[in-house]
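Box 4.2: Ligand-aware structure prediction
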Amino acid sequence: MAKSNQLVVSAHHAIPRYQQIARQLKQAISDGELVAGSRLPSSRTMALELGVARATVENAYGELVAQGWLERRGQAGTFVSPSATSGANNVANTSSQPQGAPRPFQMGLPALDGFPRALWARMMGRRLRLQTRYDLMLPEANGESTLRQAIADYLRFSRSIDCQPEQVFITAGFQAAMRLVVHTLAKPGDGIWLEDPGYRYVRPVFAEAGMALHPVPVDNEGMQIDYGLGHFPDARFALVTPAHQSPLGVALSLARRHQLLDWAAANQSWVIEDDYDSEFRYHGKPLPPIKSLDGPQRVIYAGTFSKSLFPALRVAWLVVPQQQVEAFSQHTHYLPCTAPLLIQQTIADFLREGHFWRHLKKMRLCYSERRVWLEQALQQQGFDVVPQAGGIQLVMRVSGDDRALVAKAREAGLAVQALSDWRMVSKGEGGILMSFTNLTSMAMALKVAQQLRDAIF
Ligand SMILES: Cc1ncc(COP(=O)(O)O)c(C=O)c1O
């Protein structure tokens, strides 16, 4: 079994502890100290040895599994992936793909071929030429004012959210947004309801802040609010993805949206609404965002341009209640927005000049087509796809150990993920998560669906 006693974890390091662990493990694999097939200590043992929470080790392992460095083999444990020694990126790169191209089924990406890069380059060039010497000064800590205004306008029309630009805080990505919320509103020991299964990459932000992570199960109406009320009534926060639950894709029902808001109002708690891919809905009428129902002013709303434009921007935003603007502004003095000014200005122009609307319209059509391609291709291979009204990923049900199936698929270069890896404590049917956004033809969908079948059966 691989040893963990050479790893060093420091609470005073600038990078979070789970990343310190992940980096050192990657290094050890690259250096050949950990060879393919070595078993890692269980997360419990590793956590005890390093003096960190078990969740911290789980997060490090989870990240390396997602990147292809490690693989989980059910009860047997976590192992260095057989092909990891040549670098995680190589694990899933098929020889026909250009360097750096998305791997088949890779999640978290919009359609890279659909973004108007020439227009973007022109707009950025124009912005650069328009900048004055005053643009060389430190930008506003809570984000560029024209972008905050453009987001407030966009939210009013598209999401019925009534907010002023000073309520908008631009951040360098969603995790940075969550860090700002935690620094401004949370203290160690505060409880937070998290969807289980749910978006795993944000958990470390809350864990590192010493918060208590409360898993709340999800059913076909979204987070089970009754469960949260019954088990963790005094939590200070609830983080939800109401538009399309991540990763199951279900919408939080209207009744539960009201129930959540009533709890937050009565308990003086905060609802964090992660509206990350609400732009993509293909049929049915969308439900109102919780923020648009927020009479009691208990909702912190989070959005991102990662899916609606592209992830390399790393630009997200928060809308906070008017009464919290001062507190959030204070905290941006030491957690300032680090998104580059030129990027923020160009996004603002893109929104104000109508390109954003046009782009979203085009992408909705593109995704509804690509989704159908993949759904049909998977069904032809006998897979059981779970129907969903929106979002940019698909889930299919599988029987048996989804982690083991996913490990086989990843060995074949397919970047699918196991639903079990997104769970905290919940038990439930196995699933395989995948994206369709970069499948550029039905023929390609058929080919990868066939590859998936060949890899796992
Ligand atoms: C559930 C969820 N929330 C938020 C985000 C956005 O994160 P970021 O803005 O850091 O790309 C993602 C990205 O995949 C996500 O899946």
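In the box above, the bound molecule is pyridoxal-5'-phosphate. Residues 108, 173-175, 199, 241, 246, 274, 276, 304, 306, 311, 316 surround pyridoxal-5'-phosphate (CB under 6 Å).
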